Amino acid sequence: MKKLIITLGILFSTICCFAQKPVNPNASEEARDLLNYIYSLDGKILSGQHSYNESPDEFYDLAYNITGKYPSILGTDFYWNGKTDPGPRTVQAAIENHKKGAIITLMWHVGRPGDDPPYGWSTSVQNEFNDKKWQELMEPGTKIHIKWLEQVDNLASHLIELQKAGVPVLWRPYHEMNGVWFWWGNNPEGYKKLWKMLYDRLTNYHKLNNLIWVWNANAPRDIPFDEAYDYLDFYPGADYVDVLATDVYHYDYEQKDYESLLELADGKPIALGEVGELPKTNILEKQPKWSWFMVWSNWLTTANSKERVKEIYNFSKTINRDGIKN
């Protein structure tokens, strides 16, 4: 019996440790520590706030002004929509806020491969990407594939600066892929290949080991011409994803969607990558596995009263920046 107990203990320990390993076997110590911390939350939830990259502290600071507490997570974007590449500004904000104790999450509203920056919202980020273009994207040597490599390599030049500074990143590229509004979201099989291509280029070619890979879908919905399809259709697989997240706007915290994402995650952490209206505390009691929430920029005040913001920041299970365990 004693031998059996010891054997089971070793097996349980092995399973737990395996579950917490980053998908990148060469992940940095900082990335491993952050992922382990997320696994350890045990019903607690990290607060988070997004700001546009032209003013990456704006709404993060506003959350503090409302609540007297800084969010645990600062989010911003590599979206290139102006005359100059926003990468250096995004990197600077990430490093400065990391030094202050914030966890950093970054995203990438990137234009279609083949288009040149700056990327127009409707003319590029949300423009058509047909089957022929998808096929060209997947074929090395084509014009679109070469332009895609240029996009990724430029992005990598900024992420490398964060790696040098010891900043781990909750990295959530090509988000809301199960919706119909972004160029990368209209082809499930193409999308899964695209995700793996990006993972390979950043991880194996550029040796970026500071990234925690966050696959960030949208809450499913069947609104005509604004659909978001099942999570499973676009999931690239457990070998390429550290955390599964979803975006919830208009207070659409459906229990069935929560449970569906939990099932797909199969032991990996789940998160609210973007929210509009903050979840009420009774929702979080029923959905205790969310690792973090991040309010989208100005929705902090346009979709939430100050009382609602204070309520969630003062919730007993919310961890704000001053409560992060180092």
Automatic annotation (TrEMBL):
Residues spanning the signal sequence: 1-19
Biological process terms in GO annotation: substituted mannan metabolic process
Keyword flag Kinase: no
Entries under InterPro entries matching the protein: GH, GH26_dom, Glyco_hydro_26
Domain GH26: 29-322
Active-site residues, as the UniProt record annotates them: 176 (proton donor), 274 (nucleophile)
GO-annotated molecular function: mannan endo-1,4-beta-mannosidase activity
Record keyword Repeat present: no
Keywords, comma-separated and alphabetical: Glycosidase, Hydrolase, Signal
Family: Belongs to the glycosyl hydrolase 26 family.
Name of the molecule in the record: Glycosyl hydrolase family 26
